Automatic annotation (TrEMBL):
CDD domains: Rcat_RBR_unk (cd22584). It comes from Amanita muscaria (strain Koide BX008). It catalyses: [E2 ubiquitin-conjugating enzyme]-S-ubiquitinyl-L-cysteine + [acceptor protein]-L-lysine = [E2 ubiquitin-conjugating enzyme]-L-cysteine + [acceptor protein]-N(6)-ubiquitinyl-L-lysine. It is an enzyme of class 2 (transferase). Keywords: Metal-binding, Repeat, Transferase, Ubl conjugation pathway, Zinc, Zinc-finger. This is RBR-type E3 ubiquitin transferase. The keyword Nucleus does not apply. One of its GO terms (biological process) is protein ubiquitination.
Length: 233
């Protein structure tokens, strides 16, 4: 004996009928997607598989887009389950790079590959020896060569770090042009417009005039005559 419900859930051949899966709107692309092919974020939005992959792909190429987020909320690892294996591997490598403070990052001096701290780091010299005699390098599995952690140049275990000709030339040009150096990551910064408040790519905020942490010096915040002259150009 079949009930009315049984008849509604069975077709003519007796197979069980499965109701259609609920569709939800992807918050990014606005397309309707099966709910099983989306994630529900902490801000209660649904994101589809394609949009998640594109979002993460952008982060892999552009550090300023990291971390992937929705409504200002960082997407959690569990919310990135739809990533293809190769994209997940590249993203995880970028996470290790991006989460490493810029001043202590080490890149292969030949190919530019990021060398994370566990990439066959070797330290030579005794812990009781002077700092100058302790040498640390990291190995690049692409180029099969080592890079000095201190000067970021080719490995040189038998001598101290030396300033390269390019570094000397850049310092000379920076002094001539009046450029400033970030006190944290040592990147050279040129102020083209605006006030003297500088935010470096390493997130350090400092005064362009004296390189002191922003708001901890007595320098003026801006030069009114300079701003007016630039506005008139």
């Amino acid at each position: 004996m079949h009930s009315d419900v049984d008849e509604e859930l069975s077709d003519d051949e007796g197979s069980i009928y499965t109701p259609a899966e609920t569709n939800v709107e992807c918050h990014f692309c606005k397309d309707a997607r099966p709910i099983s092919n989306t994630i529900n974020t902490s801000c209660n939005h649904h994101l589809c598989r394609g949009c998640i992959s594109r979002l993460v792909g952008i982060c892999v190429k552009d550090e300023t887009a990291y971390p992937p987020q929705c409504c200002g909320n960082k997407l959690q690892t569990s919310e990135l389950r739809f990533l293809e294996h190769s994209l997940r591997q590249r993203f995880e490598a970028r996470v290790r790079e991006y989460e490493t403070p810029i001043p202590v990052r080490v890149y292969c001096h030949r190919c530019g590959e990021f060398l994370d701290p566990d990439s066959s780091t070797i330290t030579t010299g005794s812990s009781s020896a002077p700092a100058a005699s302790i040498h640390t390098s990291r190995y690049c599995h692409i180029c099969l060569i080592r890079t000095c952690v201190s000067c970021k140049q080719a490995n040189h275990p038998t001598r101290e770090c030396q300033e390269t000709p390019d570094e000397r030339a850049l310092k000379g040009l920076a002094k001539q042009k009046g450029w400033q150096t970030c006190p944290r990551c040592k990147a050279v910064v040129e102020l083209s417009a605006g006030c003297y408040h500088v935010m470096c790519r390493c997130t350090a905020q400092f005064c362009y005039l004296c390189a002191t942490t922003w708001k901890e010096c007595g320098c003026p915040a801006f030069d009114e005559e300079r701003l007016l002259a630039m506005a008139a150009q």
